[in-house]
């Protein structure tokens, strides 16, 4: 009788935990039909259908820029980025795909009207495309939409504020040439320098404490091998991007961590490269609310993958033919839950 009561209690507890997990788990909403069309700087009044997420690559590099109310900060970033890509011989064709995440200002118009600098010495073909999401869904949601409809053999995720030094893309490119599937720009090398020390002095004690707390939690997710998970400057091969972003569930700030967790589960080669960075005014992070949201998402992330409730969405090589990927993604076995559990244990024992 006592044993039956104990078993019943355990079963009820597990059911309640599962229901709680379902309730707390975030999801990325499916955008409306207008989100699957784009406008270009060459023909801004005409809407064209976005390419399929499984179509072959059509250019060497896609620069995916999530933007929410970035009409003021976007132009300096585009100026720096365009000047660099036009003066570089690592690529022949580059698209800038700005994903307007339900902005209330004229971000989309600013992007479409932005002039591509004329460089007679450059043979690089550059295009600017803008996709408008009907409502603000979160940075992760905007990046996912852009990555799944970008045309590049390689895809760069970069913030609209221009905080990262765009020319350091060359470093990420070399790391990918050497076999990486994912290359993360990193600010970790700046710890202790004026670039970070001055920023920390101007930030509140609470914000700095929460930042250290986030890095501690990341160890329990098994991604401690990447010192800076939150830098918005990451380069992906086409196959890696499609597997990672098809799988992505988290629409908010912590989506970078989910990408790295899935990359670990898929045994993708992930490198970290030091990049230049500077603080840019105008951050949209609400310290209290967004921190609580990050904490919830981290716990839910671990629970969903460890239990197998969230699974990796495999992308076959045939679906991404023409890419410059290294082929790691397509040879993977989906060892997801067991692989993550092993890595979590390893991280906690360090």
TrEMBL record:
One of its GO terms (biological process) is protein N-linked glycosylation. It is an enzyme of class 2 (transferase). It is found in: Endoplasmic reticulum membrane. Residues 62-243 form the Glycosyltransferase 2-like domain. The keyword Transferase applies. GO terms for molecular function: dolichyl-phosphate beta-glucosyltransferase activity. It is a single-pass membrane protein. This is dolichyl-phosphate beta-glucosyltransferase. It comes from Thanatephorus cucumeris (strain AG1-IA) (Rice sheath blight fungus).
């Amino acid at each position: 009788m006592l044993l039956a009561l104990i078993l019943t209690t355990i079963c009820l507890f597990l059911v309640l935990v599962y229901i709680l997990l379902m309730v707390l788990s975030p999801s990325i909403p499916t955008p409306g039909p207008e989100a699957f069309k784009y406008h270009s700087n060459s023909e801004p009044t005409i809407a064209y259908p976005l390419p399929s997420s499984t179509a072959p690559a059509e250019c060497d590099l896609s620069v995916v820029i999530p933007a929410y109310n970035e009409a003021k900060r976007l132009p300096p970033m585009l100026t720096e980025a365009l000047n660099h890509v036009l003066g570089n011989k690592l690529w022949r064709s580059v698209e800038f795909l700005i994903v307007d995440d339900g902005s209330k200002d004229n971000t989309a118009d600013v992007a479409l009207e932005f002039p591509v600098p004329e460089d007679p010495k450059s043979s690089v073909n550059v295009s600017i495309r803008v996709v408008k999401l009907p409502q603000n869904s979160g940075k992760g949601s905007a990046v996912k939409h852009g990555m799944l409809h970008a045309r590049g053999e390689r895809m760069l995720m970069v913030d609209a504020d221009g905080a990262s030094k765009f020319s350091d893309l060359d470093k990420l490119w070399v790391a990918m040439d050497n076999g990486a599937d994912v290359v993360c720009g990193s600010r970790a090398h700046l710890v202790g320098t004026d670039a970070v020390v001055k920023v920390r002095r101007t930030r509140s004690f609470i914000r700095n404490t929460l930042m250290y707390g986030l890095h501690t939690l990341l160890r329990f997710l098994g991604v401690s091998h990447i010192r800076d998970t939150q830098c918005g400057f990451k380069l992906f091969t086409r196959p890696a991007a499609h597997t990672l972003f098809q799988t992505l569930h988290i629409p908010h700030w912590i989506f970078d961590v989910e990408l790295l967790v899935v990359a670990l589960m898929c045994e993708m080669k992930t490198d970290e490269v030091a990049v230049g960075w500077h603080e840019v005014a105008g951050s949209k992070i609400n310290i209290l609310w967004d921190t609580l949201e990050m904490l919830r998402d981290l716990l839910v992330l671990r629970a969903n993958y460890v239990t197998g409730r969230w699974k990796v969405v495999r992308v076959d090589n045939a679906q991404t033919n023409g890419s410059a990927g290294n082929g790691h993604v397509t040879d993977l076995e989906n060892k997801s839950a067991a692989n993550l559990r092993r890595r979590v244990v390893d991280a906690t024992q360090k």
